[in-house]
Design a protein that fits this description.
Elements: H1 2-28, H2 40-52, H3 56-60, E1 69-70, H4 74-82, E2 91-101, E3 104-114, E4 122-134, E5 137-142, E6 154-155
Antiparallel strand pairs: 1-6, 2-3, 3-4, 4-5
Amino acid sequence: MKHDRFLITILIGIACIAIVSILLFYSRRDDNQYSGENTPEGVIQDYVLALQKKEFEKAYEFLAEDVNKRKPEFDEFREFFITSIESYNRAGLTVGTSSITGDKAFVTVIIQRNYGGPFNDVSRSHETVDLVNQNGNWKIRGFAYPFWGHSWYEDTYKY
C-alpha cells in the first residue's frame, strides 16, 4: 500500500512538471519583440527576427537602396527564404562590436549553425555586416548566408 502511494506521488509530480514545462514553452514562444532601435545592432537584430517570424515585408524594409548595385526585388527576396528549407531558422546570431564612420557601419557577428540532430556539431563563423545610413535610418547592404542571398547587390555597371 505504501508503494502505491509513493508511485502515485511520483506520477503526480512528473505530470505537474510536464504541465508547467508546456505552459512555459507556449507562454515564452512569442516573447521575441522588435527592438525598434535605429542603431546598426538593432537593425540587424530586427532583420533576423523578422525573418524568423516569416515577416518578409518587414525584413525587406531593412535592405539598403544602392544606385550602383541591384537590390533584389521583394519576390526574389521572399522566394530565397521560402525555398531555403528554413536554414536561417536553424541559425543563431550573436552581435559583436560595431565600427561606425560617417554614414557607414560594419558590425561583427557570430553565426552559429546547427545541422540537425542532438549529437551534431554546431559551426560558428565570424562575419561582418555592412550597413549604411540612408535618410536617417540604418539599412543593411551586405550580410552572410543564411541571412543573405549571394546574388543580391551585384554590381549593375559593367567594366
